[in-house]
Amino acid sequence: MKVLVGMSGGLDSTAVCMLLQSQGYQVVGLTIRNTDIGLQPGQEEPQYVVEARRLAAALGIEHHVADERERFDRDVEVPFAQAWLDGLTPNPCIRCNPMFKFAILMEWADRLGCDRIATGHYAGTECADGVWYICRGADARKDQSYFLYRLSQQQIERTMFPIGGMTKTQVRAFLADNGFESKSADGESMEVCFIEDDYRAWLRRRMPQIDSLIGPGKFVDSEGHVIGAHQGYPFYTIGQRKGLKVAFGEPRYVLRTNPPKNTVMLGLPQDLETDCMMVSDICFAGMSPGEYPQGVLEVMIRYHSRPVPCHIEKIDAADLWMVRLHETVQAVTPGQYAVFYNAGRVLGGAMITSQRGINQYR
To answer: Where are the alpha helices (DSSP H) in the chain?
Structure first.
């Protein structure tokens, strides 16, 4: 069987190639050039592309580079920047995986005659009653199933996650034991692949006019009283405590932002607590729009958050759903994603939307 592996030049995708080769698969590597991060003076290609090509040669596998910088900018970076202007805290990976990364891998797999695709995600797949599910990876600290909930049935069915049943420590040991000791010591990849530093600095590079366009605004308390000045609402996110540059007698946290008024509401830690939230754009594996699983689920409200038991119900308003949490959580953040699990399977997810007006549905 011929398998197309998404090669990033990192240790995880290298281990994937080696594992598949050891299992008798014919491996082809594809590196998607999405940004020019790591491009050194005098280089025509960024370092991650150079490294992926070097590794493919060392492993003796066919390798291709897909230059998709324009598509990545259009489909991932532009919506990411716009979300901050809309007062959201976006997670670009959840959008990128189905629309960009896995879509391109599928396209190239067809072009190159590959039966399957494979990536270095710490996750798994499972088919039950004709429905394909993403499942949690074996390494709880590295599990990436949260980011994959929007993959289509066709994408999941065709995808392999060869290191999903391993821990990161085991992956490093596997590489070291098989002649790639230097690669096994690589550091972790960046949280957001196209941002080398803080998202605020990225926003200013991306939109040099953002400060003059939005300008400074006011910090307010829960009653609307002005209690300080800030740089502009896109530079703050729910739950933020550091970097406010305003001194109070006790720690204050960002409770919400108001883009039309350019205000940022601050409050106390207990003000961030809630036992319900509204979500939109909901989708579940193998279910038609409007359907949803009955009974108790577990939900993660952000990557690496603690799973919390919940149940969901449709709100009469268009495309709004209420998630009723069986425990309180902190810092429900519009723009992030609620991902629902049952027995280790990803059942689906939804985008956390504005919580304004939620009290009428409690």
So the answer is: 11-22, 47-59, 69-72, 78-85, 92-96, 102-112, 153-158, 168-177, 181-184, 199-206, 210-214
